[in-house]
Design brief:
Layout (H helix, E strand, L loop, with lengths): L11 H7 L3 H10 L2 E4 L10 E4 L2 H9 L18 H7 L10 H12 L2 H21 L5 E2 L1 H6 L1 H11 L6 H12 L10 H24 L5 H6 L10 H24 L10 E2 L25
Antiparallel strand pairs: 1-2, 3-4
Helix pairs in contact: 6-8, 8-9, 8-12, 9-10, 9-12, 10-12
The chain binds protoporphyrin IX containing FE (HEM).
Length: about 290
């Protein structure tokens, strides 16, 4: 039997030092695929069950009547009943039938045609990021590529103007980085960022209602065949989810070499320079390990 590693899936320093703890996940899959993780990851947070096998994760996902996302939300922290009620307006914290309804709106925006339309511009975004670093001998991959790329693509997805990209990036970090002192200064700051994000979403929705475009936001705002629309609050929450969910996840996935080594700075010629990784931030946002 392989030696049991110390199981701690919530220690941010581990992720920062050496990426996702695949040794822990591998051990858990083999010896304790449904594992009670007593440390919930924050002061006063309850523990959680770490489900690490693909087929078990699929089973959990397919049975919302047993494994509800709405009852106490999909977040790890134990929230007040009032907060839970608000968070249930976000798709990730819904069960059917609410989830199915919202999903049907979202599906309209994320068709192969809508996404295909973005391809050319996303290629330009990638080329632009590479052009930006062309003058440097060596750059930090995370800061220069992994972080800005998802933000720019998501801004493109929702049709937000180029000049707003930096603002959306900073806001989404302040919204989600509640356990990361580098990002959030206080709960009040987080709430302020949420409020700013709503205001931004509201303005964007209003612009599209006045002047519809062939884009995802316009699709989301259209009534369905039964004449039903997403409410303003539902749209704002979806916008918040999209910007936050799409940013941090992709940034961290792109920054994880899968080898336990930090991403090295890249030379402009595109080769990796081993052993020069600067520290970066990756958070254990996703408790399920998708490699199994
Ligand atoms: C490496 C990248 C990503 C990872 C690892 C990831 C992971 C996840 C996980 C674990 C969930 C929860 C699923 C569940 O509760 O059943 C989720 C949901 C979601 N993610 Fe991602 N995600 C990634 C990228 C993105 C991107 C790029 C976007 C948007 C542009 C996005 C938008 C969403 C949305 C909208 C939900 C809620 C879906 C629903 O409730 O049906 N994610 N993601």
């Amino acid at each position: 039997m392989a030696e049991e590693p110390e199981i701690n899936l919530v220690d941010l320093d581990i992720y920062q030092r050496s990426g996702a703890p695949h040794d822990q996940f591998a051990w858990l899959r083999e010896h304790a695929p449904v594992f009670w993780h007593a440390d919930g990851g924050g002061v006063g947070w309850p523990g959680f069950w770490a489900v690490t096998k693909h087929e078990d994760v699929a089973q959990v996902t397919r049975h919302p009547e047993i494994f509800s996302s709405a009852r106490r939300t999909a977040a790890f922290k134990e929230w007040s009943d009032l907060a839970v009620e608000r968070m249930r307006l976000m798709m990730i914290n819904m069960d059917p039938p609410q989830h199915t309804r919202q999903r049907s709106f979202v599906n309209r925006g994320f068709t192969p045609r809508m996404i295909g339309q973005l391809e050319e511009h996303i290629t330009q975004i990638c080329s632009g990021l590479l052009d930006d670093i062309a003058g440097y001998g060596e750059v930090d991959f995370v800061t220069e590529i992994a972080a800005p790329l998802p933000t720019q693509v998501i801004c493109e997805l929702v049709g937000a103007p180029v000049e707003d990209r930096d603002r959306i990036f900073k806001l989404s970090n302040r919204v989600v980085g509640f356990d990361d002192p580098e990002m959030v200064t206080s709960p009040a700051d987080q709430m302020q960022a949420v409020a700013e994000m709503y205001a931004y979403a509201g303005e964007l929705a209003e612009r599209r209602r006045q002047q519809p475009r062939d884009d995802i936001v316009t699709q989301l705002l259209k009534p369905d065949d039964a004449g039903q629309e997403l409410t303003t609050l539902e749209f704002n929450f979806f916008f918040l989810l999209l910007t936050v969910a799409g940013n941090e996840t992709t940034r961290n996935a792109a920054s994880d070499t899968g080898t336990g080594e930090p991403v090295a700075p890249i030379t402009v010629a595109g080769t990796m320079v081993p052993g020069h990784g600067r520290s970066w931030r990756t958070a254990p946002r996703c408790r399920a390990d998708w490699y199994g």
